Task: structure prediction
Amino acid sequence: MNKLELYCMVFYVLNAEWDENKNTRLGEFLSGANPFLFDDIGSADPAIYEKFCEIVDGSITVENSYSIASKYIAELGNDAVSSAFSTIDENEWVECVKDFLSSEHKGNNDNA
Result:
């Protein structure tokens, strides 16, 4: 699993929660964090993906991806984002990651 794939998974989880609660602060974060707005690797606001890359280091596996994503979320210090991410537990996360990685997706062939 590469950094962009992990970043996209975090975005998907947060976006799914936004679909449920329409939290304004979460929506503001997601607008800038959107990795699908442009074809390149990154986010709508490049600083958000850059910060993600600064925080996330080392090898990313399906098994450790939840703890790495959790660390990133905690580093943001954004209560709305933290609350949204807390709606998924590690078991559900792992299943979602496996589904995501087994399908065609952005980051599939990128060296992010």
